[in-house]
Amino acid sequence: MVSVSSKQIKELWPDDALVTWLQKGRIILGSIKDFLGYKDQNESWRRIDGLNLYEGSKEGVNGFLTASAAMAVARDLGCPIVVSAGIGGIGDIIEEPLCYDLPALAKTAITLVATSPKDMLNITIQPLIVVWMN
């Protein structure tokens, strides 16, 4: 999240809460301190969605997971619920492709809790909770 510093995240994130990311092609499930420490040491991070997760794994890239990638990882681990900072959708930014998050919701039997539909809708309000249950 661009608007929140790593220091703020470390201070506010619960020690026992896990986060997942792609590190040199490996799916990592670890602490926020591990994630931020690794992220801050490496500059090239990709946006990884459910369509390019396994391709990124084969290529050995570092990546942030979108909600659809997090749902794919959860499905593979047998975890029924995913929490995401947001959910992407259909936007009007020409440079950005359509996000796979919404189609993934329709295809995956995972419960997604998104703190904000910020990417799906052009809004800048306080986060709200959206729960999608398949």
Which helices and strands occur, and which strands form pairs?
Elements: H1 6-12, E1 18-23, E2 26-31, H2 32-41, E3 46-48, H3 53-59, E4 63-65, H4 67-77, E5 81-84, H5 101-107, E6 111-114, E7 130-132
Helix pairs in contact: 4-5
Structure, explained:
- This protein is 31% helix and 22% strand.
- It has 134 residues and is an alpha/beta fold.
- The protein has a single domain (6-132), classed as Indigoidine synthase domain (Indigoidine synthase fold, 3-Layer(aba) Sandwich).
- The protein has a 3-stranded mixed beta sheet, covered by helices on one side. A two-stranded antiparallel sheet has the order 1-2.
- The longest helix is centred in the middle third of the chain and has 11 residues, at 67-77.
- The chain starts with 5 loop residues before the first helix and ends with a strand.
What's this entry about, in short?
By secondary structure, the protein is an alpha/beta fold.
Task: Give me some keywords for this one.
134 residues, alpha/beta, Indigoidine synthase fold, 3-stranded mixed beta sheet, 5 helices, disordered C terminus
How far is it from the N-terminal to the C-terminal residue, by CA? 27 Å
> Residue share in helices?
25-40%
Structural class category: alpha/beta
How can the largest sheet be summarized?
3 strands, mixed
Number of helices: 5
Q: Which parts are unreliable, with pLDDT below 50 for 5 consecutive residues or more? A: 125-134
Fold-level CATH name: Indigoidine synthase fold
Number of strands: 7
The CATH architecture classification is: 3-Layer(aba) Sandwich
Strand order of the largest sheet: 5-6-7
Order of helices and strands: HEEHEHEHEHEE
* Overall geometry: globular
Strand portion, in percent? 15-25%
| CATH homologous superfamily annotation | Indigoidine synthase domain
Mean pLDDT: 80
The CATH C-level name is Alpha Beta
Rg calculated over all Cα atoms: 14 Å
Total domains, how many?
A: 1
